[in-house]
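Might you be able to consider the sequence and fold that I enclose below?
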Amino acid sequence: MAEKTVRGCDLETVEGRFAAKQVIATACVLKTLIARPVLFLAPIYRETGGPENNPHRVIDRVGQDLFLQLQSERILSGGSLYIEENHRWVRFEGRKSEGSAVTVNIDTLDGTSGINVGKRDQASAIMITDVERNRFLAGSIVSLVDDALLTIEPGRIGFYQLREGYRKVDPQNVQRSRKDLSAIATLGRHMTKVIPGPPDLDTFGGYGLHRVFTGSLGTMFDAKGQIWYEAVMWGLMGEQLGLSVSDFQNRPYDWYQILRDSQQQDYRASFPLVISNNEFAHYQFLDQLEQWTNNPTNISDERLN
């Protein structure tokens, strides 16, 4: 079904079609599961390790199983796969190719821990790169909140609404603007005293990246720092979407070097990250942040009001 659906997307590369098929198939499985209250008592929601405040669960393995099934046809060149919940790179076989090996990062279910408390910010994502040649090959993110699909190929972005049980895609237009975009998102558990009041959206991930891209959020940030496998997916795909991405001193990251470094044993680096809809919104947030930091007792109540 996902393969037929992808035919409705304007995709040109093998990697682009693979990425879209992966997330559509994953979403089709996950959307059914997370909509059922019995999920929280089922074995598929059992914790399998991970951080105490964001445990991994059996349901997170759906993406790996689907990837291996799709790749059994050797669609992609061989390379390395990183499934977030496994915390390690694994090799996979692929088609014979004269090019470099590829690296594949998958976040099967971003926002797993919030499901049982009714938090709606779930998404599924995949990113395919050639780190030997510093090349982004493809990426795709599907929002499980509103069934919106983002597809990314070098120089090509697609935004679609999935309909009819993910059997149809309708292209959507996104107008990029320089308007004042003051709404912000960050994770409550990573919150530091850098802004007055709560964020407009308590998230950092694929759903948040969708919202920044479409302009309903101006900026998504993490002052504490995203673990590398989260940072590299949202940061690099954010750049490919034409968003402004930097640390808090407005310095860019070398995501390909981070991907290379991550293949070292026990690599656990984290990266403070700011992602904004456009350069104006980016500077607006960084400037406002500087004012809050320098004058914490003279903060305007405009945002809180």
